[in-house]
Design goal:
about 25% strand; 19 strands; alpha/beta; eight-stranded mixed beta sheet
């Protein structure tokens, strides 16, 4: 792979490639890697540098229209590798029900099914460098007492595996580095995709370097892979032929915005210590190192219960809390962190300040104990609930009046979360409490159970999705079943922005699988095209990032 600094490209220069990929995160790398051993010339445009630079993040600020804040600026990282430089690395598959058109979930249903995505999951797991791929299915863990304890009519036990390394720029630096067909152009800010006069073909991509020089990329195929927020922003900014942008003839670009509404620590799993098997029964609820790599069991509502009660899907992970942490002010410090970040919606509670200061001596003792590898005393598990939400047309991303360094409009985000999400959360806590009592393991301490009027304060799970949704009908979406923008023969979208629904699971495995599938489609199309553009064979000039 060759590296090109956009700051060194001449003003007005035009570069020709077979494929232009806008974005170098998980989706962009997944697509680019599939061309690495071909003679098809590919350029990846990355607005950031090779490593993180704080000043380049300022254009990611946004306006929250309804006051509902997320971490949409913090977790969108402009650098080679994108947000994989900061993500947690959890991988799992969507459930078959997540793809279905469910009569109780408005606007649900994918134009492709789980069998189609499954064809590419193996290659996606390889791209994500997940070891022991067969272990991603809960059936592999039949001997896990945790899986067996929680699987029931109402609850499903599922498994996360970890990407290792998590940073895909690090993971694929060597494999892409040996490629003569792929070029990474950094400090390259895509400004517009420019269609021909009849709007059915992308003629070029207008780009500005960090130092303000404008140039263009002419490519046979263009893939926008900048994440759900930037994908729709670029389409909306591309106003050469229409003030509504590209691919937006039915006003769908930016709509149906979804994330996974998330709430951490509101509920607790309290253990019945009189059950002598409790350590093995909860063992895999927290992240565990196994022969199959790092894994964690997480729980969801069963398909049976979803259908019966007309519920949305749901995924909950757990984290162990130890008595020393409670006494040391650790939890108070964590609450303060979320308050300062604006994630709990309630502002700073000065009781947390007092408790943290009071507990500082014990916090130091606890930290030393952990550093020396001495065991802590288990207290309970907290629930980290990650919820599905309905695809709502009113939930949207649009252009804001505030502008970035190049005079282009930033984004405003109007994230709507329906009542069905809260209802499904209450059902899950109730079902989990029931299961714990059935197996004499404990109970759930949750205001969702004790107070039927309780309204949780949700934040996001940093999984923006849905803004260029996939559909068979152009009237209800932006891209078709092959992730090609409706009505444009050479423009594609990669990433979770194409998801019609978010389901219960972290999106990265599925979006990488879809990216690989898209690359196969483009390769097939290029086989019948004319001779590929000249491959950039200039040497790599950037040292490997580790």
């Amino acid at each position: 792979m060759s590296f090109k600094n956009a700051n060194e490209i001449d003003e007005g220069e035009s570069l020709d490639y077979d494929v232009c990929i806008i974005g170098s995160g998980a989706a962009g790398i997944a697509v680019a890697k599939e061309f690495s051993e071909s003679n098809i010339s590919v350029i990846m445009l990355e607005a950031g540098g090779i490593d993180f630079e704080d000043e380049l993040q300022t254009d990611y600020t946004y306006n929250a229209v309804n006051g509902r804040e997320g971490e949409w600026d913090f977790t969108r990282t402009r650098q080679w590798g994108g947000t994989t430089s900061v993500w947690y690395g959890r991988c799992t598959k969507l459930k078959p029900i997540d793809y279905e058109k469910r009569d109780w979930v408005p606007n649900s249903g994918w134009p492709i099914g789980p069998a189609e995505v499954e064809k590419f999951n193996g290659r996606a797991l390889t791209t994500l460098q997940v070891s022991h791929q067969h272990a991603i299915d809960s059936a592999y863990w039949q001997k896990s007492e945790t899986v067996n304890a929680f699987n029931s009519n109402d609850i499903d036990a599922n498994v996360f595996l970890w990407s290792n390394p998590k940073d895909m720029a690090v993971a694929h630096h060597k494999s892409l580095g040996n490629s003569k067909s792929v070029t990474l152009c950094y400090y390259a800010f895509a400004q517009q995709v420019v269609p021909t006069e009849n709007d059915d073909h992308i003629d070029s991509v207008l780009v500005k370097s960090a130092n303000g020089k404008q140039f263009s990329i002419r490519a046979k195929h263009v893939v926008i892979a900048g994440g759900s927020i930037e994908n729709c922003r670029l389409l909306l900014l591309s106003q050469k032929n229409s003030p509504h942008g590209v691919g937006n003839q039915h006003d769908n670009v930016g709509r149906y915005y979804m994330d996974h509404p998330r709430i951490e620590g509101m509920a607790k799993l309290m253990v019945n210590f009189e059950n002598k098997n409790w350590p093995s029964l909860i063992r895999h609820l927290d992240e565990t190192i196994t022969d199959a790599g790092n894994m964690q069991v997480f729980l969801s509502l069963s398909e049976q219960l979803q259908r019966k009660e007309k519920l949305l899907n749901h995924g909950t992970v757990f984290r162990s809390i130890f008595k020393e942490q409670i006494a040391s002010g650790y939890l108070a410090a964590k609450n303060l962190y979320y308050s300062v970040k604006g994630k709990d919606g309630n502002g700073i509670d000065y009781r947390d300040v007092a408790n943290m200061l009071k507990g500082l001596p014990k916090l130091a003792q606890t930290s030393l104990k952990q550093a020396l590898g001495k065991p802590l005393t288990f207290s309970h598990l907290i629930l980290i609930d990650q919820l599905e939400q309905e695809p709502d047309r009113a939930s949207r991303i649009c252009l804001d009046s505030e502008k970035d360094r190049f005079g282009q409009q930033k984004t405003c985000i109007e994230w709507e979360i329906g009542q069905s999400t809260t209802d499904s959360l209450r059902w899950f806590h109730t079902a989990l409490d029931k299961r714990l009592r059935e197996i004499n393991l404990g109970w759930v301490d949750s205001p969702m159970i004790t107070d039927r009027d309780y309204v949780p304060e949700f934040t996001d799970a940093c999984h923006p999705s849905g803004t260029t949704r996939m559909s068979s009908d152009p009237k209800t979406g932006v891209v078709d079943a092959n992730c090609k923008v409706h009505g444009i023969d050479n423009l594609y979208i990669a990433g979770s922005s194409v998801f019609p629904t978010v389901g219960y699971a972290n999106p990265t495995l599925t979006l990488v699988a879809l990216g690989i599938r898209l690359a196969d489609k483009i390769k097939s199309n290029l086989m019948v095209d004319s001779t590929p553009a000249a491959v950039d064979s200039s040497p790599a000039i950037i040292e490997e990032r580790v």
